[in-house]
Amino acid sequence: MHPATRRGVLAWTVVASPIEPTVPAPEQRRAGALLRRPKLWLVPTVLAALVALLLSLLYMGGIIDPNGNLHHLPVAVVDADTGAPLPGQRENVGAQVAAAVVAGSPAGSVRWRQVGQAEAQDLLASGKVYGALLIPADFTASIAALTTGHATVRPTITVLTNPGVGSLGSSIAAQIDQGAAHQASLSIGRELDSAPATAAADPTARLLLADPVAVVTQVGHPIGQHSGLGLSAFYYALLLVLSAFITGNLVHNGVDSALGYADTEIGPWHQRKPTVPIGRTQTLVLKMAMTAGILVLTTTMVMVACVAALGMDAPHIPLLWIFSYCACLAVGLGVQAINAAFGTIGQLVSMFVFIALALPSSGATVPLEATPAFYRFLGAFEPMRQLSAGVRSILYFDARADAGLARAWLMIAVGFVVALAFGFLMTRYYDRKGLKRLVPQPPPS
């Protein structure tokens, strides 16, 4: 048969017999055979195990024992008692209680701030204390009246909470204040029981005198009803970080696919575009510029969802948007810098920097003063701590600079500079070394 005819018959045979079994090409492999290759398992197994171990240690290590890790939790104590000392005593009862409260706490656990009533209110309004213990002006007079049988008002100590610093932190401070007030009441009761004036009191009166002080809990600095019990600031800051993190990685992957440095695969559809010759530094410029532009929309969507759609309490909306965008921009540029420096594993590295290490050290759910020293160290520079403090100041504390907003702006500027410096130093170094991402393609055969 003529060669052309034979080729035509061969072509016809291939097309007309699709149901015949096809012999696998030598380079094709079955999954079963590949599963028996130990090297194929090594990298994902080790990385997955290490990530699971580290995440578990980081997250659980920060919350497992808040009371046992208390370290200088700031709480105010106010002695407003103006009564004269009782007979035989040099100080009035309020001064004695305040001194006993400060001395009775375990060493290093609570940092009591003995201040006046106005200063205590200012500390609560700026989030600098987690709560306050208030001894009223008539405290000594009320105690003295108990021994006369003419008492009309039971002595009261007020515990002031601060939900704006977070529900757990405010709760821990309230428990400390309530415990201290109860111990003070029992101490006063023992003194009253031994006083000659109470010897003839009836059993009911003596029962009252054994624990004479009422402890009342009030909100020291109220926040809005749509504030998630003081957690809306944390979750809003978390949304900012996650949005910037995801946006940065989407831009990173999208640009690499568009420039031909990565494959695009959606379901069964696969595409590899022609590689565009471009240096690492110029690629980073492109990615950072796109991140900055897209984050304008991302930040707006976060605010629309939280404030407009869900009704989150949010005063100072223009300031909140500007702060949110700058915060997202610092995180987004940081993601691009890390990806440019570390390549494929950059997304894992940035996940640890901006999420895994940042969440437990944010101090927004568990106070940093109730976490181990490692988390307090991370909280000095991890972005989530700075951003949540800034958002908290805007949402709960009237955007006061001393409530964490000034430090948040400073750390955003620092993060912005570090991201640019680190990213461009690394890419310029790679470019100068000739470490191009462009892989020469073999000519078609």
TrEMBL record:
<feature type="transmembrane region" description="Helical">
    <location>
        <begin position="316"/>
        <end position="333"/>
    </location>
</feature>
<feature type="transmembrane region" description="Helical">
    <location>
        <begin position="233"/>
        <end position="251"/>
    </location>
</feature>
<dbReference type="InterPro" id="IPR022703">
    <property type="entry name" value="DUF3533"/>
</dbReference>
<keyword id="KW-1003">Cell membrane</keyword>
<dbReference type="GO" id="GO:0005886">
    <property type="term" value="C:plasma membrane"/>
</dbReference>
<feature type="transmembrane region" description="Helical">
    <location>
        <begin position="408"/>
        <end position="427"/>
    </location>
</feature>
<comment type="similarity">
    <text>Belongs to the ABC-2 integral membrane protein family.</text>
</comment>
<feature type="domain" description="DUF3533">
    <location>
        <begin position="47"/>
        <end position="413"/>
    </location>
</feature>
<dbReference type="InterPro" id="IPR051328">
    <property type="entry name" value="T7SS_ABC-Transporter"/>
</dbReference>
<dbReference type="Pfam" id="PF12051">
    <property type="entry name" value="DUF3533"/>
</dbReference>
<feature type="transmembrane region" description="Helical">
    <location>
        <begin position="288"/>
        <end position="310"/>
    </location>
</feature>
<keyword id="KW-1133">Transmembrane helix</keyword>
<feature type="transmembrane region" description="Helical">
    <location>
        <begin position="40"/>
        <end position="64"/>
    </location>
</feature>
<keyword id="KW-0472">Membrane</keyword>
<keyword id="KW-0812">Transmembrane</keyword>
<feature type="transmembrane region" description="Helical">
    <location>
        <begin position="340"/>
        <end position="359"/>
    </location>
</feature>
<protein>
    <submittedName>
        <fullName>YhgE/Pip-like protein</fullName>
    </submittedName>
</protein>
